[in-house]
Amino acid sequence: MPAMNLRQIAAEMKSCYDRAPSGRECLAWWHFVDACRLHYRTEPQSDRAESFYPPTWFAVVWLAVAKGESPDYHPETGQWRGVPCI
Fold first, then answer.
1. List of residues 6+ apart from 52 with CB closer than 8 A
2. How many domains does the chain have?
3. Which residues of 58-76 are buried (b: 16+ CB within 10 A; e: fewer)?
4. Is the separation of the CB atoms in 73 and 16 below 8 Å?
5. Which of 2, 7, 4, 13 minimizes the C-alpha distance to 49?
6. CA atoms within 13 Å, Cβ hemisphere of 57
7. Distance separating alpha carbons of residues 1 and 60, to the nearest angstrom
8. DSSP codes of every residue in the chain
9. What is the pLDDT of residues 12-68, one digit of tens each?
10. Please, which domain of life does this record's source organism belong to (predicted)?
11. Does some domain include residue 1?
């Protein structure tokens, strides 16, 4: 897997956010933002996100969520299934 910066991962995660039904929060997106803050003390929309390349494991976890392939989140709504992945 090629290295991805935090902004690129966030762009993929936005697809998960966009799949959430209108009027419902996509918890996967907010968990992703919290994971960025917790692990790297930054946010996916920050200026630092463009030049920050998190470890591969972080990208793998969140790209699986974005693609609807994570067992921790509902693939169509991004709702958390009760097992944290951060």
1. 5, 6, 40, 42
2. 1
3. bbebbbebbebebebbbee
4. yes
5. 7
6. 4
7. 9
8. -----HHHHHHHHHHHHHHSPTT---HHHHHHHHHHHHHHS--TTSGGGGT----HHHHHHHHHHHTT--TTB-TTT--B-S----
9. 998 877 877 776 777 889 899 999 999 999 999 888 888 999 999 999 999 999 999
10. Bacteria
11. no
Cα gap 13→51, rounded to integer Å: 18
Range of the domain at 72: 6-44+51-80
The answer to whether the beta carbons of residues 72 and 27 sit under 8 Å apart is no
Residue 66 lies in a domain: yes
67 inside domain: yes
